[in-house]
């Protein structure tokens, strides 16, 4: 019988949640059959640092043409012949120097569709069994690297709401040493909805609204006229 990686007890609920959570709990959009999307993967890497359980996140370069300054998981497009797991680990190596030999991948979430860029992204979940040094390897892509304690993400004082220029609203978090870095958009949505599914986070609709800094507004890909194709809204109203 094949067994999975040896995970710490606090991470076991995440492994179980990955088996039960569906695209309907995570997003308004799943890749439609006729979309022919680009395919990508991101690495949702859980570790355990001096402040307890944490997540590895990167802040994109402020001069990138798309999503400048946005906080995200390491990741990107699949190379020919790659699996999503291979792509997520390769991208993390290229962006922050993550040594994959100390990482155990234990699950994948459903592919999530980003209509503005027609991108189908699979979050790959992993345990940082042997943490090593990480840093900015590709300054063209990465501005900074963070290990964000889960306790800080769960703290209501670090929860925010972000309203984009197009009018859409995103849950968000304030991270970094001074808690002045805005985590929002796709990545914040995955974290908030997975953590809500786990019971690690409560929905906080009255979180204070924070404006995005100007450098993030240099790129505003407006959401096309796409009808949501999941049961996300109905399930959140229950």
Describe this structure in words.
- With 238 residues, the protein is of the alpha+beta class.
- The chain has helices at residues 12-20, 23-26, 84-96, 150-154, 185-198, 232-236; strands at residues 38-49, 52-60, 71-72, 75-77, 103-108, 112-114, 119-128, 142-149, 159-163, 169-175, 181-183, 209-210.
- The strands form two sheets. Strands 1, 2, 3, 4, 5, 6, 7 and 8 form an eight-stranded mixed sheet that branches. It has a four-stranded mixed sheet with strand order 11-10-9-12.
- A hairpin with a 5-residue loop joins strand 10 and strand 11 (181-183).
- The protein starts with 11 loop residues before the first helix and ends with a helix.
- The relative contact order is 0.20.
- The model has no long low-confidence stretch (mean pLDDT 87).
